[in-house]
């Protein structure tokens, strides 16, 4: 929610699935150098090939939440209510929209060269995508689309099923069309009768209502005619309805309920035929979320001078900076070097207050996480050791809930680090022993440092 986090810095994803994928990767980075390098190869190719980058971004941004769509498609509602019927019809339209994007996604991936992107392109060759889409298009109109706006989406749901599949459905749809035409005609007549610029509007809560932009002084006696009710005014925009319009809305809703019920029966039958092939959508969901995350990494690199990390037995960062601080300050912060090797893997940082010691420590941990999720890193050059755990003891506060003082909390955290650290851990400790006297604090620091050095 707050953009000033590592997630906020890297989150240029276009789909909900991509955003979730990024979050889970930050919380649990990779520990296999080969997998990380495979991802970095993809990011490098996306940065070098603008056509591939923009082509993929254009297609990926059209995808809806495929994971959520899958979970609601396979659910069987407990009751056949109008709301459930409507959502099932909506989900089928979403499914059609998603499957129609498979071919453009394959086309966008055609020029790629890296093994991971090629593997994703090959996985989209699955014939089940075409089978499901073919089954859907035998029942659903070709021009049925996912659209934004409640009225246009309601129209799409109404006319989703092809004509001549169910005669009663065709009759109900004709009735619905006549009612909507009558509403439009009635509002036109009212506009002529009162000589006011009325227009038909729609909202999911109110149904059809009348709206007009007019200055209060243009109205007779500064008021609307008495037959209009439920009047709301915002600046010079009036929204209102009439008794006849309310009755027509009720007829419209009744007609809609019939349409949805009959459409729902056809949709359920269609979904039962599709269920056998639906597993391929899990694969599609995985491909889309992963591509979205890799595109986000590439996008972040275009906005700042990030560099591709290397993986060796040395932690070396040349002129690295804090990625979140850069976003907050809107300019590149002061850069610093970091160097740790097998034989020299312990560093004590000293300096005056407000000199940036804590920021420097946090920067090292953030760069390590960025490198291990397959992102580029804010530095001129960087090399990392693969770490399996990052332990930090930063920040000072007591905890009333667990009845722990500042000192108690410090001791608990350092105990946890000492008990769980191994030779593949990155340990960052900021001002240990601050919660007690200087002598005792130095003693604790000395003992903890001695123990950690013996670990190697």
From TrEMBL:
Cellular component terms (Gene Ontology): nucleus
SUPFAM superfamilies in the cross-refs: DNA repair protein MutS, domain III (SSF48334), P-loop containing nucleoside triphosphate hydrolases (SSF52540)
DNA mismatch repair proteins mutS family domain sequence ranges: 425-441
Record flagged with keyword DNA-binding: yes
GO molecular function, one term: mismatched DNA binding
Superkingdom assignment: Eukaryota
Gene Ontology biological process: mismatch repair; reciprocal meiotic recombination
Alphabetically ordered keywords of this record: ATP-binding, DNA-binding, Meiosis, Nucleotide-binding
Cited InterPro entries: DNA_mismatch_repair_MutS_C, DNA_mismatch_repair_MutS_clamp, DNA_mismatch_repair_MutS_core, DNA_mismatch_repair_MutS_sf, MutS, P-loop_NTPase
Family as reported in the entry's similarity comment: Belongs to the DNA mismatch repair MutS family.
Identification of the protein by name: MutS protein 4
Source organism: Eurypyga helias
Species classification: Eukaryota, Metazoa, Chordata, Craniata, Vertebrata
